[in-house]
Structure formats: structure tokens, C-alpha cells
Amino acid sequence: MGVHGHLSRSLGAGLALFGAISLGSSGCASTHLVEISSRPAETVGASIFLNGEKRGVTPGKVRIDFGPNSDQRVLIQIVKPNYKPGFQYWTSVEVPKKQVFDLEDE
Questions:
Q1: Is 66 part of any domain?
Q2: Long-range contacts of 52-58 (CB under 8 A, 24+ apart)
Q3: Fewer CB within 10 Å, N side or C side of the chain?
Q4: Would the pTM of this model clear 0.90, i.e. be above it?
């Protein structure tokens, strides 16, 4: 085996070790399941958006995945025609188990 063979094998082993260290030290990711509903009763079926992506309707459960960045915030929006949208920002430590959004007529 020539110099190039040893170099390739060493480089490959080094990259694998770096990947393992990176994965091991990436911090803690977290997942939350939130039960979301809306009031008044006429707003049942309102759309639930997570960071602009529709995730379901009220009442419903939404899964929120946070990466290792502890400063990450998510935007939850509740939208129903003829009502003002409701919204909140949450970090991983602020996510409730249940949240009721009170929507107002436009």
C-alpha cells in the first residue's frame, strides 16, 4: 500500500471519529406534543400552523421538534375565517402540554 492508501484510510478514520464526536456533543434535542384548541365553539376546526406550515385543525395535537439550539423559537398560529388569528412564540422550555387560543371576531 502506498502513501495515498495510508492517507485515505487515515482521513476516513479521522472523519468518522469527527462525526461521532459531533453527534455526541450536539446538545439535547427535544420533542413536545401539545394539545391545541380554540374558543369560542364556532372556531372549532381552525387551522393550526407551526412556523407557517399547516399541522392540523383544532382541537388537535401538534408535535414540535426542537433542535439542539436552546434559543430556537417556534411560532404557533391559529387561523379561522372571519376571526382574528391567534399566535404565540414558544421556546423548548415554554411549550405547554395544553393551550387554548381565544379567537376574536374580525
A1: yes
A2: 52/77, 58/101
A3: N
A4: no
